[in-house]
Amino acid sequence: MLALLAGLVLFFGVHSVSIAAPQWRDAMVAKLGESPWKGLYSLVSLGGFALMVHGYALTRLEPIALYWPPPWTRHLVALLMLPVFPLVLSAYLPGRIKTAAKHPMLAATKLWALAHLLANGMLGDVLLFGSFLLWAVLDRISLKRRPARATPSAPSSKWNDVLAVVLGLALYAAFVMSLHARWIGISPF
Q1: Which of 29, 44, 73, 186 could join 69 via S-S bond, C-beta 3.0 to 4.6 A?
Q2: Closest C-alpha to 93, from 165, 45, 22, 150
Q3: Residue 138 near residue 58, CB atoms below 8 Å
């Protein structure tokens, strides 16, 4: 449990700098430079992510049940997960979806986390997915108060929405049919 908690603190700590201390973040970027800041940010994020994955795997060895989701939630999860991959892709393929969602990556994160909380009731699951959901909600709220930053993305095109939906649904199908079981060890159906 300690590895999971340490991973969550590292990962969300660095991801929350813009939420909690945007002036400090900007000062560090000015002091270090954009590329060194991104390098440091990436290293801490990757370290936190690795600890989080390892810690989560350890919690699955000795699970502590908090609640038992009813079997029908798997179908609700499948429905909630359907827009997740298209939303993630639309964050980098600007079009009408990105405009409508405003922050499609955060919308995807919230849907993903909520869906997984509905289907999983172990303590490790609640800590992992609950942390992602809480962070995404707080980040979305904070985005209303801070200036927008440019994010790398493809040029805007009328085809970007089509690409995001088609590729996103293909990724969804790949995860449902094979990748989730292979990478996570649990088949969604």
Answers
A1: 73
A2: 165
A3: no
Residue 75 one-letter amino acid: H
41, 16 Cβ separation under 8 angstroms:
no
User: Cα–Cα distance between 99 and 61 in angstroms, integer?
Assistant: 42
Q: Are residues 80 and 173 in the same domain?
A: yes
Q: Which structure tokens are listed for 8?
A: 């969550």
- Highest mean pLDDT: which range of 15-24, 35-44, 82-91, 155-164: 82-91
CB under 8 Å to 40, separation ≥6 — which residues?
32
Looking at the structure, do residues 146 and 55 belong to the same domain, yes or no?
no
pLDDT in tens, 91-114: 999 999 998 998 999 999 999 999
Structural domain of 132: 65-189
Contact 110, 83 (CB under 8 A): no
Count of domains forming the chain: 2
